[in-house]
Predict the 3D structure of the following.
Amino acid sequence: MTMKELAKLAGVSPAAVSRYLNGGSLSAEKQEVIRRAIEKTGYQPDLAAQMLRTRTTDLVGIIVPKLDSESVSRLTAGAAEELSQEGYLCQIAVTQNDPERELSYLSLCQNRSLAGAILMSTTADARHESFLKKLSIPVVVVGQRMKNVSCIYHDDFGAARELTRLILARGRTRLAMISATEQDPAAGLARQAGVRAAMEEAGLDPGALPVEISSFDIAGGAAAMERLLRRAPGLDGVLCATDRMAFGAMETLRSAGLVPGRDVSIAGLGDSWAGRHVVPHLTTAHLYYKTSGRAAARLLMEKMRIRKQDDPVRQTMLSYSICPRDSV
Amino acid sequence: MTMKELAKLAGVSPAAVSRYLNGGSLSAEKQEVIRRAIEKTGYQPDLAAQMLRTRTTDLVGIIVPKLDSESVSRLTAGAAEELSQEGYLCQIAVTQNDPERELSYLSLCQNRSLAGAILMSTTADARHESFLKKLSIPVVVVGQRMKNVSCIYHDDFGAARELTRLILARGRTRLAMISATEQDPAAGLARQAGVRAAMEEAGLDPGALPVEISSFDIAGGAAAMERLLRRAPGLDGVLCATDRMAFGAMETLRSAGLVPGRDVSIAGLGDSWAGRHVVPHLTTAHLYYKTSGRAAARLLMEKMRIRKQDDPVRQTMLSYSICPRDSV
DNA sequence: ATTGAAAATGAAATCGGTTTCATTTCAACC
DNA sequence: GGTTGAAATGAAACCGATTTCATTTTCAAT
């Protein structure tokens, strides 16, 4: 059912139908006739044709490193919720942690003239920044801070510092860390820096901190903990860059005969829901992923509305909230 | 940069460019000229125009009840992985557990002439079935079994029965169940039926099973457990329709002074990763969500390829795998 | 009754590709 | 040399909407 057919059926011109749908001036009788014809036929305008003619869509690209991760799903849930409220649809692309793909999906979004994109980035190098600047569609980056790019990010540094303070306050002095890759400025570098800052405050040598890099999963955390135990046998406190790493690390500690929380203080970041169900309950920091998804969506929608003058770069840092539990 | 401009720049006709891109017969010199022009300009054909003319896309709709759930994210991860391998992109719609929206998103997919859709359905009533039959784009339903519709579903009945057998084998006789809504044939009805079947085998009266309905989250499980404790104070075994409900239920048990696993056997379904980290480790059944996502994607892609004759209805039941741990 | 401005209207152009169709080119074969 | 069939080619039609533009209608103001 095309618009032309519908128009013939209603005895009006296609232009009249278009005006009915998009609000041009149209007599009351014609409106009524068209309304009835649409109701009878269930006509719906063709998206491709609309897209071609108007050069706009209600599609927003969401680019994430993976789907089966709690932080990602909280973020996408928040963004999707907010976007669908204003009638936008989400197109999701998964990069499998490959920064190259982030870029290629981004240009795909532009090529397909999507209305905008939300990028959950795992890195923030110069290439990303310049690439983003050149893009013609509005983009909001979430999870990383980049210069000259609108982004929503977390206070990774502050959260890691405060968790470390907690561990130090417990009297621990032989700290270690399980970190994310240093290619990741937010989850990797900033959280490391937070730990070191807290150590420095406490008069400890931050240079002496043993750090092992882990992938973003339980197995990675477990393996990293094994390496740490070999490398720094007497350690009594571990900060893990994510909760999942912490769960893996706790497992390793237990099989090494150590009791997490009693023998070794351990904390994670992210406030995974499982944290309050494992034993000991995991001390962690809530990072407002869902909120950041929502905020990113709202910011993006604002950008999509403006469109006129070069819209301003807007950066928002979301705070965190410490969840002190039994593992520290 | 349009195709016409590109053609002029290369000194050929637009048709030649189109043939270059889509493989029509074209002399070697023209191919070379066009190749260079494209390389120089970075030209990419406009999706909307292609879509309008060819009436096809590489977009697949994925309709899910929510995003921040482990089963959903495992499923979508599997599907997205498989789909992107063949160059398809995912468009995600969230229904918030509203069956109406499942239908409306489905017709949206059709209206936008997506290549196909994967529906993770929370119900399977007659309306859904007839609606799906009438749809002109290929659809694969996952998680529910429907007549005359291609679907991938789990052996909910078998898994629930076998878990219940485990609880019975532990010597428990005063069973109860925390169930999903009975509108949900798979997670609700089939799992209930599985429990009852195991009871019957063991010579117990399945009609006497106290059942409380819970939402698909931890809080729901906790509340349902409270109701069960009031209603059947002496219970010594609980089967929960999902792991998350089980985590909530364990919490309630503990605050009632009961030790899960010792005083009350408890099991869930879904094999959430957290199951092996809570204490006691949760006995559960692995349901192959990621595999079902992959299988659904593959089946859908096959359907999209055929397209010719009315493609056959294909139904696959995925098995389960019991994870016996400490909570039973 | 007349005038002018605003509202209503449909024909036709347009968006950027793909595909048909009629024509030309070319090599191969008798 | 003439015939033939396949490959190569570009003009033009087409996909289904929106929007411009020129024209007609309507209606209030004079």
